[in-house]
Design brief:
Strand order of the largest sheet: 2-1-3-4
Distance between the termini: 31 Å
Order of helices and strands: EHEHEEHHHHHHHH
Number of helices: 10
Largest sheet: 4 strands, mixed
Number of strands: 4
Oligomer: single chain
CATH architecture of the largest domain: Up-down Bundle
Mean pLDDT: 92
Strand content: 5-15%
Shape: globular
Low-confidence stretches: none
CATH topology of the largest domain: Glutathione S-transferase Yfyf (Class Pi), Chain A, domain 2
CATH class of the largest domain: Mainly Alpha
Structural class: alpha+beta
Radius of gyration: 18 Å
Length: 231
């Protein structure tokens, strides 16, 4: 058995960034295991059929899958459930669903919404992910027309907004809800703050992240969240 809990991730997976933010926030020591995107099924065989990231495995072998259940499990087991505590469960759940519905879907358009963006992103992903020698090159050059032409372009066309405009509108909506508070959770971040942060951080390794940081209030909130992780 492992000496520490393990989080199995893809570096470019936005759902993995959600869980990583929680781990950083509570200062939990865990092994981050980066898997090969082309070998997910084999490397996650211990999950009994689950092939997506993230996956959490306890020292004793217990496995938890899917980002939000993993976050709840970690918070309850290692943090006394503090991040899920709230006086308004209905509103918390509403914004958890909002983030998972809207912000998660906005990551593809900003990263792959144009042919140039898609190429930059797939080249970067090929360097960040744990590909093999040949699969790295296959993904870098074959991945971008698929991500742009089949997935991202349809989403951008359906939404009608540019990826930057979509993100700025989402940040407006989010920060209107946060209001005068430092965070959604008040003086300290809660689970919803960490979920939103996770989706934003998943874009941070790429040049397109500068478009998010052009949203002045969004930048302030994002940097405040990072400061809580580093303290």
């Amino acid at each position: 058995m492992a000496d520490k809990p393990e989080l199995f991730i893809l570096y470019s997976c936005p759902f993995c960034w959600k869980v990583r933010g929680l781990i950083d926030n509570i200062g939990l020591t865990a092994d981050i295991v980066q898997i090969n995107p082309f070998k997910q099924k084999k490397q996650l065989a211990f999950t009994d059929g689950w092939t997506k990231t993230p996956v959490w495995r306890e020292k004793g072998g217990e496995v938890v899958v899917d980002s939000t259940p993993i976050m709840k499990h970690i918070d309850e087991k290692y943090n006394d459930g503090k991040l899920w505590q709230t006086n308004d469960q209905t509103n918390r759940d509403k914004w958890l669903v909002w983030a998972d519905t809207h912000m998660s879907k906005a990551t593809i358009p900003i990263l792959y919404g144009s042919l140039g963006s898609a190429l930059k992103t797939t080249m970067k992903v090929s360097k960040l992910e744990k590909f093999g020698f040949f699969s790295k090159r296959i993904y870098a050059w074959a991945g971008f027309p698929i991500m742009w032409g089949i997935i991202a372009r349809k989403r951008v066309k359906k939404d009608g907004r540019s990826p930057k405009k979509l993100w700025h509108d989402l940040l407006d909506e989010w920060l209107e809800e946060v209001g005068e508070k430092a965070f959604f959770g008040g003086e300290e971040p809660d689970a919803v703050d960490l979920v939103v942060l996770g989706y934003m951080r998943s874009i941070s390794p790429y040049p397109q992240f500068s478009q998010l940081m052009e949203h002045s209030k969004g930048k302030v909130w994002y940097e405040s969240m990072l400061n809580t992780l580093n303290n």
